Give the backbone structure.
Amino acid sequence: MTDDIGMLKGMALDVMRKAYCPYSKFKVGCALVTEKGNIYTGCNVENASYGGTICAESNAIVHAVAEEGPSMKLRTLVIASTSEDPAPPCAICRQRIGEFGNPDTAIWLVNDKQAQISYTLSDLLPHPFVFSPEN
Ligand code: THU
């Protein structure tokens, strides 16, 4: 199934505008599609204790798990920011996407202008940490 990237881009930009980012002033939004075909969104939510900040991608993923439960799988994510070069996900968010995605999970980076670029998770996270109790 092909996801409607234009629609997801609109949703990512809409939720981006709700970001709580008084410290960085950098707004990020994420709209994701699960393997079940459901769409969830999230924006960044900062905290005075900077480490308490929640990224947009993590917010959307947590939202998806809360709705679908632990079997939730990611198919596509669209990440919106206002930067000239659309912002790629931070390393922790890449690892978090990897927890629920697969090497082919699509990650689109968009901005509020015309820029959009697509990657797969394996492009952005070629050597994920995988925990196995035998390690
Ligand atoms: N941010 C995200 O929402 N996602 C990322 O993958 C990278 C960074 C947010 C966190 C913080 O509120 C702001 O961008 C600046 O780092």
